[in-house]
Write a structure and sequence with these properties.
Length: 341
């Protein structure tokens, strides 16, 4: 693990009245490492531009609590994608730091993070709160799949459309399974919904404007998400009011049911039957092409304020955790008074 800039900081004061120090974690060991590095650079730049923080930008693989604490954070902003970085393991480390040191972090606690990372588990919870979602199954090697094409095959615990395949025939399903099953332990099949692709961000419980994604290619793949400039994004697209309301309500319902906090982004397909929830991302991208910053700007909150707002919340949680720890320590001490001899 190493800082991404020579002096370990982007900006800030170095005297006794220094600004709160925010450690931005980026990288990670998973397939979306490059996206994380792009997101992390933008987050660090935005926090520095806010003028409120000293920003330490750190590239990580699988950091320990000791590794992170070496940078003396007052708050931690993880922008690490994939199973390790947003699926619970990193959150376990950050939660231990929060509990033991009173240092807050941006994003969900470990259990909600692990559930949200698993697309099938998330869809089950979505269904339980009345949110419509396409039929889906876990794919087990060698077992007959009881869903018929057209289908989407994809990892159930990864993002950025990594290893996603749209299969319109049984032959394509068989070929995709032969390709993906040897390298993917967690694979799922989902009913293909032909329609318009939408996404809805949520920030501190407030639903952001709907964005329609219109890729120039067949679907919104990795290149379209992060590199191509011919993908069109339509803010507040024309939709039947009931469908727009359905997506907003579904985003908030899933966010709440999972016990998430701070920021997330829910993805949908829309056809003539209405909106279909696909998944929710608890560490949404923060690159120049990313959708939560885009929706936030449309609402009048630019990237520096968006990131600063998230850090302010994390700092407040850290202070609350430190006070709770102090109360527990005081209670323990008072329950074991020193003997008078």
């Amino acid at each position: 693990m190493h800082p991404t800039n020579a002096d370990n900081t982007f900006s800030g004061s170095h005297d006794d009245t220094r600004l709160p120090r925010v450690v931005v974690l980026m990288g990670g060991p998973d397939a979306e490492r490059d996206v994380s590095l792009m997101s992390g650079a933008e987050v660090a730049r935005a926090l520095a531009a806010s003028g409120e923080f000293e920003v330490v930008s750190v590239t990580v693989d699988r950091p320990t609590a000791t590794d992170i604490l070496a940078h003396r954070p007052d708050a931690i902003f993880p922008i690490v994608h994939g199973p390790f970085g947003e699926g619970g393991p990193l959150q376990e480390i950050l939660e231990s730091i929060a509990t033991e040191r009173g240092i807050g972090y941006v994003g969900p606690k470990p259990h909600p993070a692990s559930i949200a990372m698993h697309k099938l588990a998330t869809k089950q919870i979505a269904s339980s709160v009345g949110v419509r979602t396409p039929r889906s199954r876990e794919i087990r090697r060698g077992e007959v799949l009881d869903l018929t094409p057209p289908l989407v095959l994809k990892p159930s615990n990864d993002g950025s459309s990594v290893d996603l395949r749209i299969c319109r025939t049984q032959a394509e399903v068989d070929a995709a399974r032969a390709e993906l099953e040897p390298k993917r332990e967690h694979l799922m099949a989902e009913e293909f919904i032909a329609g318009r692709e939408m996404t809805v961000g949520i920030l501190d419980g407030e639903v952001l404007p709907i964005i329609e994604i219109v890729p120039a290619v067949e679907f919104y793949d990795y290149q379209a998400k992060y590199f191509r400039d011919d993908t069109r994004y339509v803010l507040d697209p024309e939709l039947p009011a009931l469908v727009a309301d359905e997506m907003r309500a579904a985003t908030k319902a899933v966010f709440t049911a999972l016990g998430l906090r701070d920021v997330a982004r829910a993805d949908f397909m829309v056809d003539d039957r209405g909106a279909w929830f696909l998944e929710i991302n608890t560490a949404p991208g923060m690159t120049t092409h990313s959708l939560v910053p885009m929706a936030s700007r449309h609402r009048g909150v630019d990237m520096p304020e968006l990131c600063a707002r998230l850090v302010r919340t994390a700092l407040a949680r850290g202070r609350a955790s430190a006070r709770a720890s102090a109360r527990r320590a005081t209670g323990t001490a008072s329950s074991h008074p020193t003997a008078i001899t």
